[in-house]
Amino acid sequence: MQKRYTARMRAENDRHFAETGKRRGAFVMTFGCQQNEADSEKIAGMAEAMGYEIVTAPEDADLIMVNTCAIREHAEQKALSIVGQYKHLKAKNPSLVIGICGCMVVQEHRKNDIKFRYPYVDFLFGTSSLHRFPQLLCEKLEKGKRLYCPEETEYQVAEELPIRRESSYRAWVSIMYGCNNFCSYCIVPYVRGRERSREMPQIVKEVTELVQSGYKDITLLGQNVNSYAKDSGYPYDFADLLAELDRIPGDYTLRFMTSHPKDASRKLIDVMAASRHIAHQFHLPMQSGSDRVLAAMNRRYDTAKYLDIVSYMREKLPDVTLTSDIIVGFPGETEEDFEGTLNLLRAVRFDMLYSFIYSPRKGTPAAEMEQVPQSVKSERFDRLLALQNQIGTEKNQTLVGKTLRVLCDGVSKNNDALYSGRTDGNKIAFFEGEPTDAGRFVEVTVERADAFALYGKKV
After folding, report:
1. What is d(CA 278, CA 18) in angstroms, rounded to the nearest whole number?
2. Domain 403-458, what fold?
3. For residues 220 and 225, what is the distance between their CA atoms, to the nearest angstrom?
4. What angle do CA 344, 32, 73 make, to 5 degrees?
5. What tens digit of pLDDT does each residue of 395-446 get?
6. Residue 297 near residue 185 (C-beta atoms within 8 A)
7. Judging by DSSP bridges, how do beta strands 441-449 and 454-458 pair with one another?
8. Strands across the sheet with 281-283, in order?
9. CATH classification of 170-397, choosing from 3.30.450.20, 3.40.250.10, 3.40.1190.10, 3.80.30.20?
């Protein structure tokens, strides 16, 4: 059905091009996680299939799509602020079509907010209706009415959607969608639905095509990626999928995120240790070092279980780069609880930490719990960062003098005298390079390091 709507839109845009000599432009703005970035690549791919030219500025667009995030209040407010700035573009160009999609608009209160406060927004659809984008756009243009697409009654896995990838050497591959965990602070299960996994042959086909096309760094995505196929009835699991993908011939690196400690099996770690292409990198969100807080978060593991996973991982993968997430100031967190988190940081010694001050999400159990004062959360956050910066610096200092393989991303955005890239452990490295290095693996000898980056010389 969607192919029919795509063809109708393509015909209309081809007619416009024949009359004006100019393609209609589509601009896609993305907020949120890597899964949202992967979704936006599909939105851009579908727009191209409908005859739009992807543009880099909203001022040049005839279609603006804003793909939103709901993980924190700040992300929602930033998206709404951007949408508010598009009002003047609509005034200048009444034929401009503005759509909002993604996690934020699945929430009823946000949908109503947009409906009444942003009358120039033409249509909305949530995460379950991504594949219906051509249909919704076509109906909006033909009928002229604002559309508020309801969530699908049954979430499905839509295969073979066109994708316009942002990079020619790094790629996201979604292997599953949704989440069954219902952590008490998290909105994801409510806005992305229950877990559903793609079939292994479809994933193997996509990754094989990427490798054959020259992609060097491929990241498998899922809200809880290592529970892949767990409740699907498929006769395989995430470790089996990785082992199958690792057999694809070529010069490339496989990564995955995000993992849940309760599903980080020894079988998975063993597959990584025996592999040729899987990066020795593991992002394993810890969230808190207090068993009491972990129970209140509904995380379904304790600190002993977490430390056991880390111990086995470092036994099998001595060079593993280990990163994590921490939430500071979860409702009811005491000073003793927070000290437990600091102590676990000292015990594990993460290479890098993604830390967040707790933000209440309407509709989640934690939002109704007793909140920690903002001043206390901020003070604890500063202490956490100070400790992790010290640990990160010490960890990176051990790499000085070593030569590492780096996938070059080209000229650094922060210093145009240097090139930047990522190591096998996904650490950022800066070095003096040349234009032909972009998109290629290069060898870099590390000469100095700080908490967040390595600096070296290309061999």
Report:
1. 48
2. OB fold (Dihydrolipoamide Acetyltransferase, E2P) (2.40.50)
3. 8
4. 80
5. 999 999 999 999 999 999 988 889 999 999 999 999 999 999 999 999 999 9
6. yes
7. antiparallel
8. 281-283, 321-328, 352-357
9. 3.80.30.20
Per-residue model confidence as pLDDT tens digits over 111-133? 999 999 999 999 999 998 999 99
pLDDT digits (tens, 9 = 90+) for 156-199: 788 889 999 999 999 999 999 999 999 999 999 999 989 999 99
How many Å apart are CA 280 and CA 246, to the nearest integer? 13
CA distance 100 to 79: 9
Q: Structure tokens of 356? A: 């967040």
Q: Which of 380, 298, 400 is nearest to 334 (CA)?
A: 380
> How far apart are alpha carbons 180 and 194 in whole angstroms?
5
Please state the three-class secondary structure of 332-400 as a single string: CCCHHHHHHHHHHHHHHCCCEEEEEECCCCCCCHHHHCCCCCHHHHHHHHHHHHHHHHHHHHHHHHCCC
